[in-house]
Design goal:
This protein is mainly beta. The chain contains no helices and nine strands. The relative contact order is 0.21.
Length: about 110
Amino acid sequence: MSTNIHKSGKRITLIAPSGGVTAGQFFLVGALWGIAATSADAGEEFVLVREGECSIPKAQGAAFAVGAGVHWDVDDGEANTDDSNPRVAVATADALTDGLVVRCVLVGAR
């Protein structure tokens, strides 16, 4: 049995940055992203869910069709269609321009 595999990576434990993290918040640092499963103050551990279907906030006016790439704008803290931002998910339901969230499945780092 391998001794260098720690766990599946579907859920990982990280240290919350300055400002902390709120459960349900989309979290991105470098090439690592997911949904915070737990809340934590800065410096405390929290669990990040890295795979599965979720809803994340999207830019006003952005529209997604099923199967479209979902990109994350770190500065604005919302999903958009700008492929200069990292692709973090794929839409699993249509999201109209006036909606507040996009339902999507998270994708791994690239």
